[in-house]
Design goal:
This protein is mostly helical. The chain contains twelve helices and no strands.
């Protein structure tokens, strides 16, 4: 049985790789999506057998409810709303990774240093992805201001919070019984997700969402180490790597620095403030087909900017 499980894991991994490859072109993207979906279906089914789960009631309920929500979103969300939907799904993925890592800890804990380190990383990355993705969704949907939100000592505070999480992680690895430390890591990580995405402007949100997608993959990969599940490690690493590559490509296409986008204007802050009075002002707003037709009908000049 173990040989069959590993064989199915290998097939699923191959489907993931080919699926991501087919997603590189609009002509083959739908086929790539189907290949990846098939790989995920095989992974879920064989994992249920691998873990020898005794009761399937909750699993069936989760599959039915989740499939219904996914089908509804796929049918109702328009293509112009895809970035927002991807942001929400990234958040769910990061949150799920953090919750699974926490549940594995409460299930029995472990003294293995490697498992404890990846558990802390899973909670950190997953929590940051969760809150950060929902802030990104809010900015794109208009629930949260699309402007750059800055506050005094913004970047030093973020750095200090990150260092505090790392220090707390070291303490937790040394003494895994400190549940309060783990909860503190979770809380600060949730706050970091908000603080890291708020300073990013609405125009840079697609780049931020792509980066958060990479984070969700890394969180899943870390959870794979916690669960000692090879397929989850592989799938998470694929998503993490492809997400960061896409982020870099998008930054180059927008003539932006990745560090500048991620840290909300850390670089060239002085230059940015000096040019604020002469640069373009206002926010870009989306319109539907009828509004676009009216605008084009009354416009004398139209500029088309690919990527926006």
């Amino acid at each position: 049985m173990q040989i069959i499980i590993y064989l199915v894991y290998l097939i699923a991994s191959i489907l993931f790789i080919f699926g991501i490859k087919r997603l590189s072109s609009p002509k083959t993207a739908r086929q790539g999506n189907m290949l990846s979906s098939l790989g995920m279906f095989l992974a879920i089914v064989i994992t249920l057998f691998d873990q020898q789960i005794l009761t399937y009631e909750y699993i069936i309920i989760g599959v039915v409810v989740g499939s219904a929500i996914g089908a509804f979103m796929a049918l109702k969300v328009e293509m112009t709303g895809m970035p927002q939907m991807v942001g929400v799904l990234n958040g769910f993925g990061g949150g799920a990774s953090a919750l699974v890592a926490l549940s594995e800890y409460y299930k029995g804990g472990t003294s293995d240093i490697a498992i404890l380190v990846t558990l802390v990383l899973s909670v950190l990355i997953g929590a940051v992805t969760f809150t950060g993705s929902f802030i990104a969704f809010g900015k794109l949907q208009g629930f949260v201001t699309g402007k750059v939100v800055k506050y005094p000592l913004q970047n030093p505070i973020n750095v200090l919070l990150l260092l505090a999480v790392i220090a707390a992680g070291v303490v937790f690895v040394i003494d895994p019984s400190r549940v309060d430390i783990l909860m503190g890591i979770l809380s600060v990580s949730l706050l970091l997700g908000v603080l890291l995405v708020l300073p990013i402007g609405g125009a840079d949100m697609p780049v931020a969402i792509s980066l958060l997608n990479s984070y969700s993959g890394l969180a899943a990969s870390m959870t794979g180490f916690v669960l000692q599940n090879n397929l989850l490690i592989i799938a998470g690493a694929l998503v993490g790597a492809s997400g960061i590559i896409l982020t870099i490509i998008m930054c180059k296409g927008m003539n932006r620095s990745l560090m500048n986008v991620v840290l909300g204007g850390w670089e060239n802050a002085g230059a940015a403030s000096s040019e604020a009075g002469t640069g373009p002002q206002g926010d870009a707003k989306s319109v539907d087909a009828e509004e676009a037709a009216m605008i084009f009908d009354s416009a004398q000049n139209v500029v088309i900017i690919p990527g926006y």
